Amino acid sequence: MVSIVSVYEALTRERGYSKPLSPAAALRHLYGLKGVQFDARLVEKFISTLGIYPSGCLVKLSSGEIAQVVSVSEQNRLRPRVLIVLDANGRQPPSPLTRDLAQTQGLFVKQAVEPAQLPDYLWSPLKENINKLEDDSCRL
Predict the structure, then answer these.
(1) What is the CA radius of gyration of the chain?
(2) What's the rounded Cα separation, in Å, for the pair 97 and 53?
């Protein structure tokens, strides 16, 4: 399990020699290594513990908004608490807006979004949010 966590951390952190993968892309990478490099049961346990949309992950909501996952509920890992970074029209909200998808009927994660799909002016501050989440022990 320690090796799996170490690889996940290496994949999601910025290094001088490579750009970080999004949490969702890192999980896909680890899933591809299950039964090859890592014990399949441990990889599946790691992913189920972390959730499909881990903290820091960018997602597109059913409303068309783009959001960053802030926290994941143990009771419903598919309905995290998110910070809206772009509204459905592609504009930044005038003030920080969070939504708890577990408490918001009809709103759900449609898909994960790769950071490369966002303009640089949006991705830079989001990287700072991810670092803060790591500092607050919300991520591994």
Answers:
(1) 15
(2) 19
Task: Give residue for tokens 């303009």.
Answer: 119
pLDDT per residue as tens digits for the range 89-123? 988 888 889 999 999 999 999 998 887 777 777 66
* Entry pTM: 0.69
Write the DSSP assignment of 91-127 as a string of letters.
---SS-EEEEGGGSTT--EEEEE-GGGS-HHHHHHHH
Q: Distance between CA atoms of 1 and 13, rounded to whole angstroms? A: 18
Q: How many CA atoms lie within 13 A of 114 on its CB side?
A: 9
Amino acid (one-letter) located at 89: N
Interior/surface letters 5-25, b for 16+ CB within 10 angstroms, e for the rest? eebbeebbeeeeeeebbbbbb
Residue in 79, 25, 84, 23 with CA at minimum distance from that of residue 55: 23
User: What does the angle CA 103 – CA 26 – CA 88 come to, to the nearest 5 degrees?
Assistant: 45
